[in-house]
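Repro:
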Amino acid sequence: MATETAQPRPQARKPYLLGSIDAFQEVVSTAVILPKEDGVISVSEDRTIRVWLKRDSGQYWPSVFHTMPSTCSCMSFNPETRRLSVGMDTGSICLLFMHFCFLSLECLDEAQLYLHLYVSAAHQGRVSVVLFVLEMEWLLSTGQDKNLTWHCSESGQQLGTYRTMAFVSGLQFDIETRHAFVGDQSGQVTILKLEQDSCSLVTTFKGHTGNVTALCWDPVQRVLFSGSSDHSIIMWDIGGRKGTAIELQGHNDKVQGLCYASHTRQLISCSSDGGIVIWNMDVTRQETPEWLDSDSCQKCEQPFFWNFKQMWDSKKIGFRQHHCRKCGQALCGKCSSKRSTIPLMGFEFEVRVCDVCHESITDEDRAPTATFHDSKHSIVYMHYEPTTGSLLTSGTDKVIKVSMSATWLELGFTPI
């Protein structure tokens, strides 16, 4: 699954900026929106956990400034229980409770953090992902030591561990089936069945040519989305049990985050160049074809440059091999000189197609299925809050932005 040369983004649209926070000394590792309290929680490389509450002026002001023993590498927040799980670069994990103080029924004064659990040396290296599973009372985590572990969130006792083949950079969990989805730097996605004190390997997926950088699981449609440093996104149809894998090509740089809005059937993706793409997943998409192997062009039968025998027999110079992105045939440059978008195959940028396929693609087939936005900063992390339609991004510029796309405004969301 190869990518094409970067193309101009179609349908570029500017998000509606609701607010920004830029009072950081270091890059923000993770941040999430607090919808009920109209606030933001952030953890940073400067070892701090901060809670920001939005005031009547529209600006975010700090309510909590808590310093951790070491650099905060990742975080997850459970809004139902207000538990905050924080992973650190020393391998330790901290579970905290958040409490909000109100001056009145409608006036929030401040927030407070209380330590609930501290798991020392859960990993031998930096914690890359941490997840709290309320239904199981589990604390799942992965680290640079290539281990997936799960601890009891009440006692801190380690319940189980699984050794991965490479450094894990993405983790999702399905409560119904107890399946853990693990993405690593080899480009592989592994599905594990977790039990109270053991786990078993279910299957593995391999579709990316680069590191898996982001995972997103939709338990309703039962599909898994994976993003990669190869700029691509793959939708794995887990529930269909047919092995369907849909490729989405809409980024010019490494995919940094994935969020799925189930109420609108939209996938939101972001990349390190600041690009945000909103994909319409309420359409019937098609799998990209497997690339066929051949020693000569499958249209004009001209030899490719490694086919020495045919080159000698025909007294012709060999050509470079290309592939049509629609039919997958191996072709010479002359027989695949056309370019076209194929949105239902995930190609929102123009890609190489053969002459026959180019003629078969209609204007309706070229209708875009995604909209493109510019966040105006290099994105490190992204969080989507479905109840408000708000999108948070943190960047290498040490700034947090809370935005709402014009697309969501059209769907009826109003700024918070």
